[in-house]
Amino acid sequence: MAEIFGSVDAAQKKNDPQAERDAIIKSSLSKIKHKFIVMSGKGGVGKTSTSVNLSIALANQGFKVGIMDVDLHGPDVPRMLGMQGLLDLNQNKKLTPMAYSPNLGAVSIESLTTNKDDAIIWRGPIKYSAIQQFVADVEWGDLDFLVIDSPPGTGDEPLTIAQMISDARAIIVTTPQEVSLADVRKSINFCRTVKMEIFGLIENMSGLTCPHCGESIELFGSGGGERTAKSMGIDFLGRIPIDPNMVKCGDAGISFQEQHADSPVSLAFNDIAKKMGAMVKP
Amino acid sequence: MAEIFGSVDAAQKKNDPQAERDAIIKSSLSKIKHKFIVMSGKGGVGKTSTSVNLSIALANQGFKVGIMDVDLHGPDVPRMLGMQGLLDLNQNKKLTPMAYSPNLGAVSIESLTTNKDDAIIWRGPIKYSAIQQFVADVEWGDLDFLVIDSPPGTGDEPLTIAQMISDARAIIVTTPQEVSLADVRKSINFCRTVKMEIFGLIENMSGLTCPHCGESIELFGSGGGERTAKSMGIDFLGRIPIDPNMVKCGDAGISFQEQHADSPVSLAFNDIAKKMGAMVKP
C-alpha cells in the first residue's frame, strides 16, 4: 500500500531507500521556482475553485504551472478542470501530470483510481507516503509555479507539505462569515507553528448580486476576511464575489475564466495571479 | 499527549489499560440508545449546521441528546450553540458535556482548549486516541441520541467512529452541485466498506429565494441529492433551502429554530428529527 502507484522505483533497490527518495524529492522540487499551498480552516469555502482559477490565470499569463491535489478524500481538481482518465508513465518510469493546456498540468489521486466513486480510506501515515510520491514519482519538470490544493483544516496533508516543501508559501481562503473566520485563525496559527510563510488571505464568496433584480444579498456577509487579515498581520490578496456560474462551470469542468473573462470573479483572480507573477518577472 | 484531557484515569493503573478502556467505552455507549454520525464528502455543505439543528429539534421533541464534535481541526459546534468556556470534571473525574439546555449537551475539542485560535496539529493516531477519550472520559449518561459531527471526507475521524461505535448510523449531507455529489458517493461507499448503516441523505443549501424580489436563485442547483440517493439506493431524508439567517444565527450562536420557528428550514429539520424520533417512540 505504501507504493501506491505501483511504479518500478530504482531507489527502492539501493541501500538506503529513504535517503535516495529524499534526494529525488529535493531534485524534483529544485526545478520549481515557487510553491504555494492553498489552505482553508473550514471546508466549502472555494479552496479548489481558487487553486484551479489562480493556476489558469497564471498559465494564461505565460507561466508554467502545475497543480498538485493533495485532498485525498475529496479530490475535485480533475473534475473542475474537465479532465478524465488516468495518469501515464513516461520512459523514466515517472508519472506525467495530465495536461490541461501546454502551460498547465495536474496530478490528483482521482487520476490514479479507476472507480471515481470509491472512497480513499487511509489513515495519516499512508497519506504522508502518498503525498511524497506525488513529488518523487511525478515528472513535474521545470515550473514557475506549483499550486498545491489541500483539504480543509490543519491535519496530515498540510503538515506533510510543510515538512517536505520548506519554501512553500500559504494562500489562505476564507468566506466572510464568523464561523469560517474562526477556523482561518487556526490556519494562520498553524502556518506560524510550522514556520510556513503566509503569502496572504483571499475572501471568497464575498457578496451575491441577485441575477433577477440586481440587489445585493448578504449571504455570508462581506469584509470579514480583510478585517481578519489586518488583525492577524497578514496580506489581504483580494475579494471574490459569489457567481452562480462558477458552480455551473466547476460542475461541468468548463473554464469559468474562458467563458466569463470579463466577470468580476475573473478580474479578481487575474489580479491575485499578477501579484504571484510579480515574484517571477521582476 | 495521548492523555489529552489530563484526567486521572483509574484504568491506566490496572494491568491491561486498553482492555479496561474498551470496557469503559462499551459501558458508556450501552447507555445511549441511538448513535448518528453526520458526514459529508465535501466540506462547507452545512454538516455542523445540520448536526446542531437536528439535535435541537430532537431535544425540543423531548429526547435526551448529546452532540459529540469530532471535527478536531474545525470544531464549530460550540460557536454555533453559543457556548463558551471549558468542560468541567465531575466527582467521578469524568468530563461533563456543556449544557445547552436540560435535554442537550455537547462535547468538543474547542471546549478543551484555552486559546480558541490555536490550531490542532495532530496526525492520525493521536486523533484516534482523542476520539476514544470523547467517549471513555465523558459522562454522557443515559441518552436517546448521540449526534456525532464529523469533519468532511473519509479520513481518520469517521473511520475511528466506525470502528469504535459499531451501531452508529450515518446521515450524509450534501449540497446539490455535482462536485459535492461526486464526493458524497465516496462517503456512501465508505460506509459500505466499513459496514456502517446509512440512515439517509439530506440535501442542504437547496435553492435560494432572493429576499428582495422573491425570485428563485439557482446557486448550487437543486434535486441532485434526491437523485443521488435514489441511484445509490439509500433513503432521502429531505431538502433544506438556503436561508441567509442560518449563517447569521450560526455566527452569533443564536438558535435559528427559536428565532425562525416557522421558516421552511426549521420545518425541514423538524421533519427529519421526527423520522429519527420514530425509532425511539414506536
In terms of quaternary structure, the protein is: homodimer
Interface with most residues: A-B, 61 and 62 residues
**Number of DSSP strands of chain A?**
12
Envelope shape of chain A = globular
Q: Which class of secondary structure composition applies to the elements of chain A?
A: alpha/beta
| Whole-angstrom Rg of chain A | 19 Å
Mean pLDDT of chain A: 90
Characteristic key phrases:
homodimer; 282 residues; alpha/beta; eight-stranded mixed sheet; two-stranded antiparallel ribbon; 38% helix
Please give the structural blueprint.
The structure is a homodimer of 282-residue chains.
Chain A (H helix, E strand, L loop, with lengths): L16 H14 L1 E8 L7 H14 L4 E5 L7 H5 L6 E2 L5 E2 L1 E4 L2 E5 L15 H13 L6 E7 L6 H9 L4 E6 L3 H16 L3 E8 L3 E2 L6 E2 L6 H9 L3 E5 L3 H9 L3 H4 L4 H14 L5
Parallel strand pairs in A: 1-7, 1-8, 2-6, 2-7, 8-9, 9-12
Antiparallel strand pairs in A: 3-4, 5-6, 10-11
Task: Report on the architecture of this protein.
2 copies of one chain form a homodimer. Chain A is of the alpha/beta class and 282 residues long. Chain A is built from 10 helices and 12 strands. Chain A has an 8-stranded mixed sheet with strand order 5-6-2-7-1-8-9-12, with helices on both faces. In chain A, strands 3-4 form a two-stranded antiparallel sheet. The radius of gyration of chain A is 19 Å and the shape is globular. At the A-B interface, helix 4, helix 6 and helix 8 of A face helix 4, helix 6 and helix 8 of B.
